[in-house]
Amino acid sequence: MKKSLLSAVALTAMVAFSGSAWADIIIGVGGPLTGPNAAFGAQLQKGAEQAAADINAAGGIKGEKIKIVLGDDVSDPKQGISVANKFASDGVKYVVGHFNSGVSIPASKEVYAENGMLEITPAATNPVFTERGLWNVFRTCGRDDQQGGVAGAYLADKFKTAKIAIIDDKTPYGQGLAEETKKAMNAKGVKEVVREGVNVGDKDFSALISKMKEAGVSIIYWGGLHTEAGLIIRQAKDQGLKATLVSGDGIVSNELASIAGDAVEGTLNTFGPDPTLRPENKDLVAKFKAAGFNPEAYTLYSYAAVQVIAEGIKATGSADDAEAVAKTLHEKGPFKTVLGDMAFDAKGDPKLPGYVMYEWKKGPDGKYSYFPQGS
After folding, report:
1. 33 — alpha (psi -120 to 50), left (phi > 0) or beta?
2. This model's pTM is above 0.85
3. What local confidence, expressed as pLDDT, does residue 23 receive?
4. Which residues contact 66 (CB under 8 A, 6 or more apart)?
5. Which helix (H) or strand (E) holds 223?
6. Which helix (H) or strand (E) holds 80?
7. Are 98 and 113 in contact (CB under 8 A)?
8. Cα 360 off chain centre by
9. Quick check: 105 and 172 in contact, CB under 8 A?
């Protein structure tokens, strides 16, 4: 009798626990939480966590709470696959991430699509991500063929007589962005005088800078992230190369200024309209800053990704079937987000305002950051 009673109690506890677990809508956040790109991983993490907290505080999704779980991919494709497999084994159906295109592209197909998981990246801009006919991929950011088109036209219009070098970091993101920019610039009749690739993690760019000096380069277009960009900017100045670096959204971290120092002044980069400047986001931005975090770059893009998942689940009526939610995201909307009203095309790309140019300079606080050009 005691044994039966114990079993009944254990069964009741198990059912109660399971019901509680099932009531959570688990969203995995995958990105470089450690390593040289940890600043971007923090943006994805903080944005998603704040969105989940705000949605939960407002009652959750049909009474269910969002739970965020983290996966550190260190910007490495193999580690990204490991993170994705861990998410799958833990029953995660929705993923915000990854930061790098080189991680997002294989994880989305090899793991997420195969396991019925929906992925929304706030930052992976390589066109391939949404060009493979997968049901499960979305992004809240733009694409490199859009960004490169803006950058290439800008270079051709503003620096048509300059000698331009195009350098990339050989990653799917960096090389893809550099090639799209080159294609747009070349189409307007401007040709580069140097075209080179470097390796992620390189520290000494003396040989490259010497080559650019010999070629008379005054504009460097960089396809890559802020870590190498900062070193190129600083070393170019140290070695007497007077050149302006122009890049994309991969350098939009204030860590760039920490690496480049005063040489960062005048650097240019493309990025979407800054969501932190939207009047509707004033209180949200203040909330982040009060917690000691500056919601720069992709923070609000990650926040928006969680909002999109939540709105998709609400419109579908259930979180159980991620493929049904994906269908809803394709067919319904626009959905309210901190980036504005967002709808998706058949590929999973958002209908967003285009890229604009930013310039690095000192702000009112005396610190270097990126500001809309002309502001």
Report:
1. alpha
2. yes
3. 61
4. 24, 25, 26, 27, 52, 55, 56, 60, 306, 310
5. strand 219-223
6. helix 77-89
7. no
8. 20
9. yes
> What DSSP state is assigned to residue 129?
G
How large a percentage of the chain has pLDDT more than 90?
92
Instruction: Give the residue from 323, 344, 325 showing the smallest Cα distance to 333.
Output: 344
Q: Is the peptide bond before 32 cis (omega within 30 degrees of 0)?
A: no
Spatial CB neighbours of 164, under 8 Å, sequence gap ≥ 6: 155, 185, 190, 192, 193, 194, 217, 218, 219, 220, 221
- Closest C-alpha among 124, 120, 125, 123 to residue 137: 120
The alpha-carbon radius of gyration of the chain (Å, integer) is: 22
Q: Pick from 136, 76, 68: which is nearest to 108 by CA?
A: 136
At a CB cut-off of 8 Å and minimum separation 6, what does 218 contact? 159, 162, 163, 164, 242, 243, 244
Q: What share of the chain is helix, strand, coil (3-state, %, to 5)?
A: 50, 20, 35
Average pLDDT, the chain: 93
Q: Are 119 and 95 in contact (CB under 8 A)?
A: yes
Spell out the residues 6+ positions from residue 222 whose beta carbon is closer than 8 angstroms to its own. Answer: 167, 168, 174, 178, 228, 229, 232, 245, 246, 247, 251
Strand partners, 205: none
Distance CA 342, CA 232 (A): 37
3-state secondary structure 13-77: HHHHHHHHHHHEEEEEEEECCCCCCHHHHHHHHHHHHHHHHHHHHCCCECCEEEEEEEEECCCCH
Kind of pairing, strands 244-247 and 65-72?
Answer: unpaired
Question: How are strands ordered across the β-sheet holding 368-372?
Answer: 194-197, 164-168, 219-223, 244-247, 268-271, 356-362, 368-372
- DSSP code of 368? E
Tell me the pLDDT tens digit for each residue of 148-188: 999 999 999 999 999 999 999 999 999 999 999 999 999 99
Number of helices followed by number of strands (H, E) in the chain: 12, 12
Residue 169 to residue 162: CA distance in whole angstroms: 23
Given CA atoms 78, 83, 88, 90 in this order, what sign does their dihedral have? positive
Cβ atoms of 192 and 185 within 8 Å: the answer is yes
How far is it, in rounded angstroms, from Cα 134 to Cα 125?
16
